Amino acid sequence: LDKLINEYSKKIERELKKSSLELHIKVYDKEGQRKKFSLNLRALSPAGVIEASDADWDFARTLHKTFNKLMNEIEHEFHISDQHKR
């Protein structure tokens, strides 16, 4: 968890200056021996709040998918704002 968060937070910091991250983890293990993980991730910055979420049975895969979704949202937001400035 720490390794992946450090890796992705550096990438996010390059895009969003002075940002902070909030990660909410919910574990579902109501039946059987498998656990399902639901992650909600928020990037808070002066530019606004960007959110992403995902759920899966493998924690590392869920974390990667959630961070990738957040990075795509960040890129999308900046791409749209650059077009409006022209």
Q: In a few lines, what is going on in this structure?
A:
This protein has 86 residues and is of the alpha+beta class.
Helix/strand-derived class? alpha+beta
β-strand percent reads: 25-35%
Alpha-carbon Rg, integer:
15 Å
Which H/E pattern describes the elements? Answer: HEEEH
Major beta sheet summary: 3 strands, antiparallel
Helix content: 40-55%
**DSSP strand count:** 3
If helices are DSSP runs of H or I spanning 4 or more residues, what is the number of helices? Answer: 2
Shape: elongated
Mean pLDDT across every amino acid position: 86
Low-confidence stretches: 82-86
Strand order of the largest sheet: 1-2-3
The rounded distance between the terminal residues' Cα atoms is 40 Å
Outline the fold blueprint.
Layout: H1 2-15, E1 20-28, E2 36-45, E3 48-56, H2 59-85
Antiparallel strand pairs: 1-2, 2-3
Helix pairs in contact: 1-2
